[in-house]
Design a protein that fits this description.
231 residues, alpha+beta, 4-stranded antiparallel sheet
């Protein structure tokens, strides 16, 4: 009886430890990736996009584009050296990256195209496979940043950058190299759009129009009857 009681006690302790381990694994950054994996399985684009900080993600995609494309990288360096901003500022009015990515993910997740593509693609930077996200190797950087190593069935490995925004972990970027993902994870959120200029304060003096000049030959004394004697 004592042996059976002792075995039951050990089994109960093991169950508690297993539950604690499972809770730790499924919390934080991994919980965010698990949610995105489930959204991919259900073709739920809204839930998938809810796991991303799209503004920061789009900003980091612009940086990826500058690194991968030599002409765009040159444009980025030239713009910064001239003081007119990097490529993201220069192309901001031409390419609405945030809107473009939103539309791509919305379509790709809802149709299943994104998941199917990333399963077979033989290039990195396409980590959107449910089982790959579930099995990601998480490395936390401090209390509010992390990177995830994701390997797809095609044996392609890429990295996701995650950041804690409020009480929720969100994906803020993807990268081919861990070092780049770390930079994206610890960077501050993308700046908000500049506010519109404030309206003029009521009561400010308005410029008065300049007095009209008399036409040539016009009698400036016309109408002035002061000192004139009537006959």
């Amino acid at each position: 009886m004592k042996i059976g009681s002792r075995s039951s006690r050990y089994f109960f302790v093991l169950l508690i430890l297993a539950a604690l381990v499972a809770a730790c694994v499924s919390s934080g950054p991994q919980k965010a990736l698990n949610g995105m994996a489930e959204a991919l399985k259900k073709n739920d684009s809204a839930a998938f996009l809810a796991g991303m900080d799209m503004k920061s993600f789009a900003n980091n995609e612009m940086k990826n584009l500058a690194k991968e494309e030599a002409p765009l990288g040159l444009l980025d360096s030239l713009g910064r050296s001239l003081g007119i901003g990097g490529m993201d500022e220069i192309l901001g009015s031409i390419v609405d990256m945030e809107s473009r990515l939103h539309n791509q993910f919305n379509r790709g997740v809802s149709t299943g195209e994104l998941m199917a593509q990333c399963r077979e693609v033989e290039t990195p930077n396409c980590p959107w496979v449910p089982e790959s996200l579930n099995n990601a190797k998480i490395t936390e950087i401090g209390s509010d940043a992390a990177v995830a190593q994701v390997t797809t069935p095609a044996r392609m490995t890429s990295w996701l950058a995650l950041r804690k925004v409020g009480d929720k972990w969100l994906v803020v970027g993807r990268a081919v190299m861990e070092s780049t993902a770390r930079q994206y994870a610890v960077a501050k959120s993308a700046p908000a759009a500049p506010a519109a200029p404030a309206p003029a304060t009521p009561g400010e003096p308005k410029p008065q129009p300049a007095p009209e000049k008399p036409a040539p030959g016009q009698d400036t004394m016309a109408g002035d009857t002061q000192g004139v004697t009537k006959i």
